[in-house]
Amino acid sequence: MFKKILVANRGEIAVRVIRACRELGIATVAVYSDADREALWVQAADEAVHIGPTPAAQSYLDMDRILTAARSTGCDGLHPGYGFLAENAAFARACTQANVAFIGPSPHAMEQMGGKLAARAVATAAGVPVVPGTVEPVVGPDAVRTLAKRLGYPIAIKASAGGGGKGLKVANTPAEVDQAVSLASKEAQAYFADPTLYVERYLIDPKHVEIQVLGDRHGHAVHLGERDCSLQRRHQKLVEETPASISPALRARMSEAAVLLASSIGYDSAGTIECLVEKDQFFFLEMNTRIQVEHTITEAVYGFDLVKAQIRIAAGAKLWVTQAQLRPRGHAIEARVNAESPTAGFAPSPGRITRYAEPGGPGIRIDSAAFAGWRIGSDYDSLVAKLVSWGDDREEARRRMLRALDEYVVEGITTTIPFHRLLLDEPAFAGAEYSTSTVERFVQAGSAAIASAYEAKRPQRTSSADGATGSEGATKGDQAEVTVEVNDKRFRVRIYGLPTGASGAVRRATKFKASKTVAHGGASVVAPMHGIVAEIKVRPGDAVADGQVVAVIEAMKMMNEVISHRAGTVAAIKAKAGETIETGSPLVVFGEQS
């Protein structure tokens, strides 16, 4: 077994891995960027190393910095979590060369299944049906339109290195292809540093069902059931549940195909086979060669720790359970609590959490790295927490989730909590009769109810001191504890004889103020969020229609289209591509209306 593991990630998954290591008696090392110095996972680990500036490309995606941190702290294992470098075969090889075990699948397995194009070819060779589309990269909108003539509209333009809905755009007509290609490639480059795209037919109203697989390095593979991930917005999952409401025959076929596919490549870790389901047919979509965000609900129904399993398998253990021994019990639901505003098209809502209180009680689990005083920045994704409910049956799990959502308090930022309350009471969800288009229909039909829910739960503008003590200063009589960095390594230091009122020595309880939101100015289209201007789509003198896209802002690793709130003629452009822009700053200024 490993002696010390470096957790090469951030957020709730870093906390999750650290907890698994602690249960196994393994020491941990956290890594952090400038923005994450006071993060919960940094405080939870046995050691912590600073790896660079806030941008992920200069910290969490910097292989050299992360491997240097692993070597300098004597780590013999490295867990990548999900996202960032988790599915990077070159990084996995670099870990091996540095005598640090990569806790995940082999580079060979990742190369076969990590890239979506390669995965489609492997699935086809294994006899697993795939969504009709290309097996080669496509370059430029003209090539996409040519393929669409054969596949038919709508089409999905997808990042080969993508996952989690990032780098995926849909074109319903030839006129939409240019914009879809541009946004997909930008998003793919921003999140995966790989703009390679491919095209497949977009299934309009399927279910999105995935199968959890687990393999070892001795030729064994099993599945741990399926998860229904159909409730999505912008192709990113909002709510997942297991088991899915599919026929036993379809479940058996999908599970058999998933194990067959994993076995055909000698898969040797936790992984997920994602499929689209239409009636009683299924199509392979992609394989995620890592731990999945929604692994929590599988753990809830199987009573099985997938992260500890990853660690044990990476240490060389043979699979210790057979397929017959893996029996699910009950039903589980996960709701992703994101810092987003459903009333503003699920736009990111970065800011400081002013009050934070988690629910509890029977059947409730929360995976989170949030706390009162923590700032949700715009440089990373918008996930605040994963709320999981378990019940003897689906209805008990649903009602427990509703109860937990009512108890959950997150103030200072806008979250998806009120939206989840409405969604779980929606007849389509209550009756388990939903698909990937359900959320979109629900948002359109229930816009007034959603707006009302958010008006009733508007974050308080007066601050609270609940749990708001900064971690670099905790006084104990005439002593104080401070956090210091020496050669990029984090240490806690206790100082005796220091007056508690000494400037800079102790941070007392702080009352955090919520950030303000700024609406569109009458003569200007303003930035609805903090981020980087990816594209300005109009020029001075252009006539702009009400509802027209005038700019694209990258925030929380997503490309967000900024839509004009009125018609007008562009008088001036106030921002440039590549610049950082603050919420409420003008992008486009209109001339006076005649």
Describe the structure.
The N and C termini lie far apart (75 Å). Residues 459-477 and 500-519 have low confidence and may be disordered. The protein is built from 16 helices and 33 strands. Helix 4 runs antiparallel to helix 5 (107-113), helix 7 packs across helix 8 (177-192) and helix 12 runs antiparallel to helix 13 (417-425). With 594 residues, the protein is an alpha+beta fold. Helix 4 links the parallel strand 4 and strand 5 (101-102). Among the domains are: 1-103 and 464-499, 3-Layer(aba) Sandwich (Rossmann fold), CATH 3.40.50; 132-201, ATP-grasp fold, A domain (Dna Ligase, domain 1); 524-590, OB fold (Dihydrolipoamide Acetyltransferase, E2P) (Beta Barrel), CATH 2.40.50. The strands form nine sheets. Strands 13-12-9-10-11-14-21-19 form an eight-stranded antiparallel sheet.
Strand residues, percent: 25-35%
Whole-number radius of gyration?
A: 24 Å
Please report the distance between the alpha carbons of the first and last residues: 75 Å
Number of continuous helical runs: 16
Largest pleated sheet: 8 strands, antiparallel
Tell me which CATH architecture of the domain at 1-103 and 464-499 applies here.
Answer: 3-Layer(aba) Sandwich
Structural class computed from helices and strand pairing: alpha+beta
What fold name goes in the CATH topology slot of the domain at 1-103 and 464-499?
Rossmann fold
According to DSSP, the number of beta strands is: 33
Q: Tell me the helix content.
A: 25-40%
List the strand order in the largest sheet.
Answer: 13-12-9-10-11-14-21-19
CATH structural class of the domain at 1-103 and 464-499: Alpha Beta
> What is the averaged pLDDT score?
88
* Uncertain stretches of 5 or more adjacent residues: 459-477, 500-519
- Backbone shape: globular
